[in-house]
Write a structure and sequence with these properties.
- The complex is a heterodimer.
- By secondary structure, chain A is mainly alpha-helical.
- In chain A, helix 6 (126-140) crosses helix 8 and helix 11 (257-266) packs antiparallel against helix 12.
- Helices cover 77% and strands 0% of the residues of chain A.
- Chain A contains twelve helices and no strands.
- Chain A has helices at 2-29, 33-37, 44-54, 60-72, 86-121, 126-140, 143-157, 169-199, 202-209, 214-251, 257-266, 270-298.
- Chain B has three domains: 3-43 and 50-58 and 184-254 and 479-498, D-Maltodextrin-Binding Protein, domain 2 (3-Layer(aba) Sandwich); 63-166, Dipeptide-binding Protein, Domain 1 (Dipeptide-binding Protein, domain 1); 262-471, Roll (Dipeptide-binding Protein, domain 3), CATH 3.10.105.
- Chain B is 33% helix and 22% strand.
- Chain B has 17 helices and 19 strands.
- In chain B, the strands form four sheets. In chain B, strands 1, 8, 9, 10, 11, 12, 13, 14, 15, 16 and 17 form an eleven-stranded mixed beta sheet that branches. In chain B, strands 4-5-7-6 form a four-stranded antiparallel beta sheet, with helices on one face.
- The longest helix of chain B is centred in the first third of the chain and has 18 residues, at 3-20.
- The radius of gyration of chain B is 25 Å and the shape is globular.
- The chains are: A mainly alpha, B alpha+beta.
- Chains A and B meet through helix 2, helix 3, helix 5, helix 7 and helix 8 of A and helix 1, helix 4, helix 8 and helix 14 of B.
Chain lengths: 309, 500
């Protein structure tokens, strides 16, 4: 167990260092926030003055060293654009992202897993083919399109739900559905494959021979045994949800990290982008780590040290 | 974290959000959807529409423009020129900041000094750095001294907000930016970061009080979503629509289009430092090939207006009767034929998502029709800006763009785009340089207008850029909203109303 942790921490540190370094340089190579800040009429001298105020006229390597030094002291700096501490900006957005990711995961899981079970049990039947078609359609629809479609139907025509922005629980429904549909298909497919896998195993045959009903068999035995791949996919899907949120949050004016990411990249708000990427790296690595631990909880035969089982 | 715990947490957050904000839609509240939330509310620190649409309601400016575009008193009631470089303003004496402190000449002088201090780093420095001195000359008068004659000063002062010295000095720049105190018709109530800014009416305001008790500004980045909000009745005013969305609003019957032609001029720039664009025949061919009327009528639904000079009718320096170079494919092809093989040189047309891509693609097609080889190069805004402001040999060959100085003065658009000293200019023409420099400091209005008229003629002959149209700004408004949009794209809450 100890070795496992140590190795994981080592890997995480390298990954995070690599990701932040990449982001630091790529951003600075592709544009300058100063030009976006000043009015079009600004002269070269005005722009230089602004660049100096922001500290962007220093050599790149000095800026990088400062960034690393600040990072070690847990100082993420201030946004150029908003003149507010980066942590304040991110802290304001985080709850919305968590709420949306939670909502989407709920939609994906609560629809996806039962659909997967159904697909597995009815394999080869016509109804299964039709259902699979629906699942594929849900996965193939681009969110910027399905999002605006949802808004037009449920907010503008029917007037049942608020069209955009955060607010009450009703505000969370459409963005969660738009975002969750993507992962729903993944969950459905993985569940289906995994259950089919289990169905061909000996214990299933013997259970059937004992006369256990299909319903009981699926609910009591199969779902638990088939859930390991689903859990590992869930960890991956949460990172996908955070990435997919960029578009959904833009369409629904949902003030989460996805929207903040795109706004900060567009305005070259370097420090905010760096902080978001850092956070993203932490979350992804952390979730994978959690998934590994969950495996061993679900199936005690799996040992984290990777030794003989 | 287990799935159930994730769900539990999400549910908890959902509930918390539900309790936190239940937007009530009442007549005494106006809800405005901007593209993004304001970046900062310190008026000296930020220059973008989403910010100034909000903070200009919190702060008063030295002077303002009425709905017809005339410069009229705001904090300053009158002004007189003492010499070519000195002008004395008389200010109101009955103005109080939101904290109850009277606005004094100290605040005016402080505001000028703050925004013109290079160390402060205002993005607007370039709009005000011709002011070299500000001094109180009496209890209600301030004298401004400029570095040489500067006829555009008043036009610039439309954008100079007066901040309270005592508050800024006490709380500092970082705090003032999130909790601004002004003297305007509305005060900041709350700023829910990332979500919305709420302003409430200043009932002690010295001038016209607003009709709405509160105003909500929200950031809604997707234009189609802004329209959906408007049609669903969850917002009263939405900004920045294109002609397609405007048609959608028009046809819905649920809301109305509010539009006005602005001082934002769309133009097509050609890099005359690079072959084949260094040949005037090539530039003229391009000018003849672009169907300006076709673009305005066919794509932009007649909201903008075609112009033949690099200013709009709302600029000082506009001259009547300068026709646009006519659309004439035959003539364009003749000129291209004269150019021979050089005309086939591949040329990049630089553009960014903020510009109407339908127009960009139409222009590409029109140029292809006369046999030119034009490729569209789309980058994000930051990269595009970098390209525009680089040295002539690496700057893009062709550019479609729109320009507003928010000053309604020819100097603010013609100097940066045509004078060889400017990073944006793709031309070096000594005669144009001389005329622009002379006009910049000519105090006599008639003579100044004449100088710009001469530049218009030269631009039409030499074609360093092709003026296309004075663009329109299109808003969507609730049916009952009473509001007149202005050519300088301002949005004053105390000029809005509601009809039952």
């Amino acid at each position: 167990m100890g070795r496992f942790f140590l190795r994981r921490f080592g890997q995480a540190a390298i990954a995070i260092f690599g990701v932040t370094t990449l982001v630091f340089f790529i951003q600075r190579l592709t544009g300058d926030p100063t030009l976006l800040l000043v009015p079009e009429t600004a002269t070269k001298a005005d722009i230089e003055a602004m660049r100096h105020t922001l500290g962007l006229d220093r050599p790149m390597i000095v800026q990088y060293a400062t960034f690393l030094w600040d990072l070690l002291r847990f100082d993420l700096g201030r946004s150029f654009i908003q003149n507010v501490a980066v942590t304040t900006i991110i802290a304001a957005r985080l709850p919305y992202t968590l709420a949306l990711a939670g909502g989407a995961l709920f939609v994906a899981f609560v629809i996806g897993v039962p659909v997967g079970v159904l697909l597995a049990m009815r394999r080869g039947k016509a109804s299964s083919g039709g259902l699979m078609g629906v699942v594929l359609a849900a996965q193939s629809m681009p969110t910027f399109w399905s999002g605006i479609l949802l808004i037009m139907v449920f907010a503008v025509w029917l007037g049942w739900l608020p069209p955009s922005g955060p607010g009450g629980f009703s505000h969370l429904i459409m963005p969660s559905v738009a975002l969750g549909l993507l992962s729903m298909a993944t969950f459905a497919r993985i569940t289906r494959t995994s259950i089919l896998d289990e169905l061909s195993k000996d214990y299933v045959r013997s259970a059937r021979a004992r006369g256990v009903s299909t319903r009981r068999l699926v609910l009591r035995h199969l779902v638990r045994n088939a859930s390991i791949p689903v859990v590992s996919i869930a960890a991956l899907e949460i990172s996908h949800l955070l990435a997919g949120a960029v578009i959904v949050e833009t369409v629904f004016a949902w003030p989460g990290l996805g929207l903040l990411t795109i706004q900060s990249i567009v305005s070259r708000d370097f420090l905010v982008v760096q902080a978001i990427v850092l956070l993203g790296a932490f979350v992804t690595i952390g979730l994978n780590f959690l998934a590994d631990i969950l495996y061993s909880v679900i199936d005690p035969r799996i040992r984290l040290d990777g030794g003989p089982s | 974290m287990s799935d159930t715990r994730i769900l539990a947490r999400a549910a908890a957050i959902g509930l918390a959000l539900a309790v936190a904000a239940g937007a009530v839609h009442a007549k005494d509240q106006v809800i405005i959807d901007l593209v993004n939330e304001p970046a900062t509310l310190d008026p000296h620190l930020q220059w973008n529409p989403d910010s100034y649409w909000v903070y200009r309601n919190v702060f008063d400016n030295v002077v303002t423009r009425d709905n017809a575009g005339q410069i009229v008193p705001q904090l300053a009631t009158s002004w007189k020129r003492l010499s070519d470089t000195e002008i004395e303003f008389t200010f109101r004496s009955d103005v109080k900041f939101h904290d109850g402190t009277p606005l004094t000449m100290d605040d005016v002088v402080y505001s000028v000094k703050r925004i013109t201090d290079p160390a402060f780093g205002s993005p607007q420095l370039g709009q005000f750095n011709k002011i070299i001195k500000a001094e109180a000359t009496g209890a209600n008068t301030v004298k401004l001294t400029t570095d040489g004659a500067y006829p555009a000063l008043l036009a610039q002062l439309v954008k100079l907000s007066i901040v309270p010295k005592h508050v800024v000095e006490k709380v500092g720049k970082d705090e003032f930016n999130v909790k601004p105190v002004g003297s305007g018709p509305y005060r900041l109530e709350t700023w829910q970061r990332g979500v919305q800014v709420t302003l409430s009416r200043n009932d002690a305001y010295w001038g016209d009080k607003g009709a709405f008790k509160t105003a909500l500004f929200r950031g809604v980045p997707d234009a189609a979503t802004r329209v959906a909000n408007l049609l669903a009745g969850t917002s009263d005013l939405v900004v920045t629509l294109n002609s397609d969305l405007a048609q959608q609003v028009e046809k819905s019957g649920r809301a109305k289009v509010l539009t006005v032609q602005t001082e934002r001029v769309a133009y097509f720039a050609m890099n005359s430092f690079k072959a084949p664009l260094n040949d005037v025949r090539m530039r003229l061919a391009i000018a003849h090939a672009i169907d300006k009327e076709g673009i305005v009528e066919g794509i932009l639904m007649k909201y903008p207006r075609v112009v033949g000079e690099l200013v709009s009718p709302f600029h000082f320096g506009w001259a009547d009767g300068v026709d646009s170079i006519p659309y004439d494919v035959k003539k364009a092809k003749e000129l291209v034929a004269q150019m021979g093989a050089a005309a086939k040189t591949p040329m990049e047309l630089a553009t960014a998502p903020v510009y109407d891509q339908r127009v960009v693609q139409a222009i590409q097609q029109m140029l292809a029709d006369i046999g030119l080889n034009v490729q569209i190069k789309m980058t994000d805004m930051a990269t595009w800006l970098q390209g525009q402001q680089s040295a002539q040999d690496v700057a893009p060959m062709l550019t479609f763009s729109r320009w507003s100085c928010a000053c309604q003065d020819a100097d603010g658009i013609m100097f940066p785009l045509l004078h060889s000293s400017s990073a944006w200019s793709r031309v070096k023409n000594d005669k144009i340089d001389q005329l622009l420099a002379a006009a910049r400091s000519e105090p006599d209005e008639a003579r100044r207008k004449g100088l710009y008229g001469d530049v218009h003629k030269l631009v039409r002959e030499e074609v360093p850029v092709i003026p296309l149209y004075a663009d329109a700004i299109i808003y969507g408004g609730a049916k009952q909203l009473k509001w007149t949009p202005t050519p300088n794209e301002s949005m004053f809450l105390n000029r809005m109303g509601w009809s039952e």
